[in-house]
Structures are given as C-alpha cells and as structure tokens.
Amino acid sequence: MILRRSDGVWLNEPQRWAAKGDDLRILTDKATDFWRETHYGFNRDSGHFLGFPTGEAFTADLRVHGDFRALYDQAGIMVRLDAHHWVKAGIELSDGRAMLASVLTNGQSDWATAPYEHNASDFWVRATIANGVLRLQVSADGKSWPLMRLAAFPKANSYLVGPMACTPERAGLEVVFSTFRLTPPLGKDLHDLS
C-alpha cells in the first residue's frame, strides 16, 4: 500500500521510488514537468503524479519533505481531470529561492508565486474542491493553514488527487510524501485557518 491506500494510479511513474507505511519516497526523472502553452508555447505532461480517485467534493492534504536545489525543482499536490484541466501546488525553486507556487490549467496554464518564509524542506499542502471552487492552503506546521489560492475549477463527478513532483532542468530531486488524508470537504469558513 502507498500512503496507506491501494487505489493510487501513477502518471509518469518515476524510475526510482519506494513506499513504506505512510511514506512515499521518490527520486525524480530528468526533464519532468507539467505545463500547457502559456508564455513558453510548449506542452509538457511528463511530471510524476500519483493520483487517488475522489468524489465530486473533497479535501486532501499531505506532508512534503523535499531537497529543492535547482531552478524549477517542485513538489506538492495535484488535482487532475485530464491533460487539459488540472492544478499543481506546493514549493517550487525560482529566482534562487523557495516559492509558494501554483499552476492552474484550464486549456492553458497560469503560474502564481509568492515567497515562502518558512522551512521549504518540510511543509504541508491542502486542496479542497466543492461546488466548482478550488481552495489551496499551505501549512508550516500542519496546524495553521493560510490560504494560498482560491479559484474556479471545473465541476466533475470525480477527480484524481495526490502527490506531484517535477524537475524540468535536471533529475534527482528526492521527495518524501507522508500523512496523506482524503476526506469529505472540510466546509470551513474562508478565514478559518485550522
């Protein structure tokens, strides 16, 4: 079992990975990424993603330990409908520092970043989908969950959600994912940070 579940499906399974108990350890392959068209003009769907099926509404969160060293090294959570409709969110190395980063793709990708002021090698990330709305949160301690992003997201009967990691410029980012939880949507007020 991976992350204490047996229903995960790999998209671009990494050559090197191991699962033990609630931990999933991966080492990224070379030149992996998720991106569609905007600014760069290319499409990439080669990043590593372990997707677990959901219903039409859910909250998912997980803990991420990553050794981010090179430009665009990234790891976090992904919610995916198909190659044209998805979101990835977590930490990404850009301009020499760890950034909170999310890419929302609805035919084309956008990219939103902000400096991350905590320990980027150990963080939690959460995605909630309900009623056509995506809510992304990040936590430095697994207790306080500030808002990272709020956006419209396509309604569907089911999604895939789970850990994601990419290294567009290299191979070899080591990431450990743990404490994965998939529940009905928390239904908390937007400013409830618990």
Automatic annotation (TrEMBL):
InterPro entries: ConA-like_dom_sf, DUF1349, UCP022704. This is Regulation of enolase 1.
